[in-house]
Design brief:
87% of the residues lie in helices and 0% in strands. With 154 residues, the protein is an all-alpha fold. The chain has one domain. Helix 2 packs antiparallel against helix 3 and helix 3 packs antiparallel against helix 5. The longest helix is centred in the middle third of the chain and has 50 residues. The N and C termini lie far apart (49 Å).
């Protein structure tokens, strides 16, 4: 088979159509991403007053309460981070499932002459390799978003 030139804008637009069907998952992922970022910022913001108002003057009872509060804030951030990862992975796999179903339906509608003039392995290889490339891209995007979110806040 001869390789076609790729129109990246069309490809991205088509991929966004599939991701758009997972709007709630994407929105939830963004929300928990902000929650995770907010917990990191809030936790860091509370450190200076804890040091100045509790550690510096040896107020150990007050310090314990502040550390429990700080632990709750960071705990919320950890839970949000885990939830974000799970939601993005679920969105990626649902999107890939829908793409696979559409490709299968397309393959079923192709005329017999199409499959007779091409190697069956080539057709399946193209479908498999293209979907694998999309899968890797979506999974890495979820990981990159998470890592940038965490690194950008430190």
């Amino acid at each position: 088979m001869k390789a076609k030139s790729v129109d990246y804008k069309k490809t991205i637009a088509r991929l966004w159509k599939y991701l758009g069907k997972q709007k709630m998952g994407v929105i939830l992922s963004l929300f928990v991403s902000f929650l995770c970022s907010g917990s990191i910022v809030l936790g860091a913001y509370r450190l200076k007053p804890i040091i100045n108002n509790y550690i510096a003057i040896s107020n150990w009872a007050g310090l314990l309460k502040q550390l429990i509060g700080l632990g709750i804030i960071y705990g919320i951030g950890i839970i949000a981070s885990l939830l974000q990862t799970q939601v993005m992975i679920r969105v990626a796999y649902k999107t890939l499932h829908e793409i696979r179903n559409d490709l299968f339906k397309k393959l079923q509608r192709l005329p017999i002459a199409f499959t007779d003039t091409r190697s069956h392995g080539d057709i399946m290889s193209l479908f498999t390799n293209d979907i694998d490339a999309i899968q890797v891209t979506l999974e890495q995007s979820a990981i990159i978003i998470k890592v940038r979110n965490q690194v950008g806040q430190k």
